[in-house]
Amino acid sequence: MTLFNVLVVDDEQEFRDMTIKRLTKRDITAEGVESGELAIERIKHGDIDVVLLDVKMPGMGGIAALREIKQLKPLLEVVMLTGHASVESGIDGMKLGAFDYLMKPMEFESLLEKLSQAYERKRMQQDKIEQAQIKHDMFMNPS
Amino acid sequence: MRMAEERSDAIRQYLDQQILLLSTLSGMYPVKVIGNQDHLDRLFKAINERGHVVDLQVIDAKGVQLSYVGPHRALVEGKKYHDAEWFNDTLIAGKHVSDVFLGYRNIPHLVVAVTDPLKTYVIRATINSEKFNALLHQAQMGHSGDAFIVNPEGEFQTPSLQGEKELTSAERELLVHHEGTAAQVMGSYLYTTRWIKEGQWMLMIKFKVSESLGSFNERRNNSLMIIAAATIIFMFSAVLLCRYMVGKLERSDRRRANMDQQMIQVEKMASIGRLAAGIAHEINNPLQMITNQAGWIEELLPDEDPALVKNFDEYRDAVSKIKFHVTRAGTITHRLLGFSRRMTTEKECIRVNELIEETISFVENEALSNKITIERELDENLPTTMSDGPQVQQVFLNILNNGLDAVDHDGKIVVSTRADDASIYIEFSDTGPGISPEVMKQIFDPFFTTKEPGKGTGLGMSICYDIMKKLGGKIDVNNKKTGGAIFTITLPLRKMGEPGQEEEGTFGYEGAIS
What we know:
A: 5 strands
């Protein structure tokens, strides 16, 4: 049984493969894409809980992708992970609603912890919305 | 001129005063009373309080002496005066003032005589003319000036201040009758003359021309001195002002040169920063791959049968070392990228003594080659604390490097540690020249360096200061009494899970946003 679904967005295939392999070993469903554009396409099809997003990629960069992802799926959590970062891009990422902004090299255990925390938050937000929906339904249809 | 008038007025007043005195006596007392010896004795005492009346004599209209008070009683006793010129002069004119004569005691005297209104007797007084002379000599005449009275024959009636006994032939020519005051320059002297006592005496005042201009000269000299003093003060002020301005310009130039130097340094640092950031990026990605691969091996190792893998433990150790060093390298690249601040949020338990040992090992070779020994006085029971190891180590390294530079060669650096309930103290003392008060003031200022241009960034101590502040500790610097500098680092003692007291606001974005 899978714990949650992660989309790994990074232009380095080796990184994607290794991360997916190690996440899968821990019962986390993971798949990878190599660009921001592909990430958005994939997210539209649903089933993704957390996105692990690189900042510097050919084509659409991580920050632009984050903006679109948050517009498409506000509940979806995004963890930024980059080898090249500045305080400014970190602040941009956090303002746009990223769950965290991490620096490479990152130990897998720490990365895993961040992804789990991100999923946890997504689940809690979702629960709140569902609870509110139930209350709303009960109010509308008391029977 | 005015002086001659003033003096002549004073003399006239003086003589008038003497005449008035005798006239009063003659008016008040009839001959019977005043001719009485006892009575004259009493009158003499009454009028001669000041002692300038030498004697007093009463003579009847026929020239017979009636009474006398004075020192020459024997000489005048029974003397007849009916033939005396002055006596007859007095009876006719009512009053008489004699020329000055020396008298029996060789003291200059002056005789004043008046007759009573009925002309029944003559009263005569001999006046000591010293007081009279003093009136003349009060005049301001300079060192070589003179004032005296002469009679129409040119005989001195009062002594000359300059000790002259008689007039010069040129001076005698001045004895011409004239009205009022006359002034004439003869030789180097200015003479002022005035006939007094109804033409019987001439008051002669003489000044050296150069001295009579004394006050003018004095005033002129004063003015010149004031002008000279003002000029000197002005020039002095101008010189001072110029020097001050030049100094100020020089200082500002130096400051500007310093600023330029700093700007060059900042630009250099910025370009180094950009380069470092670029390199860091290129390194971070491979580092991520290395740590991932090592992690993967670590994950897979437990699947192996240790009995079948000969060096199982060695592999496991190697993998953990790879991961450790990747983390170390990562710390460096993060710092290069300006992310070191963010990393401090992740506290770890640090062993200060171990960090010191490790830091010393970085610089030991350099120290050895310069014959500098690094001694350790480490407290073996030093507690651990929650802090940022790499950053604390950076501070240690910086201070050690500065210490090595200060000692230069053949010296010693002593590193000691101790702790109390609240803090850990790390002291670095060196045998260098110590720190001058000027340097001490700026030692923690960014871009301040004592090293040659290009050798030091001037950021080391400033970064150390920032780091220690951020970690809730501090860094102090002092000079030892025995010479050399001593840096003391105070690191707060924090147990695991205990909240830090750093200034969160100065941290990276993580602290600022969440």
